[in-house]
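Weekly puzzle thread! Below is a chain. First person to post its structure in token form gets bragging rights.
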Amino acid sequence: MLREHIGGFMMNWRKPVIYGLLYLSGSKIPKYFKEIKKMEKFSLKEKEEYQEEKLKKLLLHAWKNIPYYHKVLGKVKVVVEGKVNLNNFNKIPLLTKEIIRKEKENLYSKDYEKRGHYENTSGGSTGEPVRFIQDKKYNEWNIANKIFFFNEWFGKKIGQSEINLWGSERDIQRNSLSLKEKIINFLYNRTFLNAFKVDDKKLKNFVKIINKKKPVSMWVYVESIDYLAKFIEKNKIKIHSPDFIISTAGTLYPQIRKNIEDVFRCPVYNQYGSREVGAIAIECKEQKGLHEFFWTNYIEIINSKIYVTNLNNFSMPLIRYEIGDIASEARSNKCKCGKNNLKFKEIKGRTINHFKTKKGDIVHCQYLIHQFYFNDWIKKFQIIQKQLDLIICKVVLNGSKDTEQMKKIEDNIKIVMGKDCKIKWEFVNEIEPTKSGKFLYTICELE
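Winning reply:
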């Protein structure tokens, strides 16, 4: 019996170590994790009551501490004499990226410097990145979400092998991970495969690592795992079958899902989130729609557009924020899995391409998109590959262009596209969406 106990600990020593370090650091991730476990079984009434309570706390904080919302919430009588009236919630003006750019620090809480804040920038399908701040509480809730849905919904234990087929801009430019990131990855038994730039040699190495590590789960960019699956199928390569795959950062079309599931012989679950508000929703094992993280975000779907109120970021609350994606709403909150938080029938939002180089490399467009982040002079952008060695950067200016930053963007693009790649800038008044209403912030015109 003692030998079995010791053997079980040695097989998964990571879990107690991870939890021990979290407790010692004062992190509230374990606390939030326990709360989420309780809330997943909430009835529809309990869910509504929970969201109402968190909305009231957020709105009252915003009215007291944030100049923009003090004015707005008072005007529409959401807060009157220090009391919140949720009946007027739908009168709050929708928050757009244009408003965020205009108001800037007027959207910051007076006490944001005490909340462990950090800067981030939007991604998504609009092609109009904006800067905003998030804080420690927001980040810990977001991590608790990921731990919960990896371990509770899909049966993976903390410390079991996992692989992220993801993308790191810094690793392409510097070819390095920080010591902190290496320690975290080791403790979580997580292997990171950089999908921003791939060729046949790199794809073969991915297969080798997956077969060696035998991950229980994989967290992946949808376009990257689809490309890897096609490579495996084309070359008739044997591949380890994980228990499940979670895909994100793109639209999981039915044919893409089928392709991945056929090759990896496991279910693929669609996860939806954004840089602005974190994890928003995920599929359960039924694969009949996406369940909202109602303890993290309050979601509205108005004329097929998604609007999100994050319930945990008090440093810069995003209230009724227009995220820029399109979705269809589930007909009922109740799912066959027994949970009452089914929200989306499907997400129709973001579209991302891969670009190709003269050498035959495949470049994930998230890397290219990231080059345009944190540039206040860029209001909106679109990147088009016309030829193997020709990239067009369309930009709607927010003021005057920054030639120094333009040069930096060009240099970083050439790291992956090749030194001989020509980069042309087109400054335009507007960039139109497609007929379907989607904004394509990258377009590859090569066949």
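Puzzle host: Confirmed. Bonus trivia for everyone else. Residues 1-155+243-350 form a domain with the Rossmann fold fold (CATH 3.40.50.12780).
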